[in-house]
């Protein structure tokens, strides 16, 4: 049985991103957050639909 993806609430609250295999880091000293999202692949689009582009994730 396959379950639909559901992002953890605290990650979505901090990042605003609802993409699987995403990570976020935060540097306290420089007050800089960095978001890492998985690249869009043909196989991923077939199975899961198109994910966010870098530009969409930055918004």
TrEMBL record:
SUPFAM superfamilies: Creatinase/prolidase N-terminal domain. It comes from the Eukaryota. It holds the Pfam family AMP_N. One of its GO terms (molecular function) is manganese ion binding. Signal peptide: none annotated. One of its GO terms (biological process) is proteolysis. This is Prolidase. It comes from Alectoria fallacina.
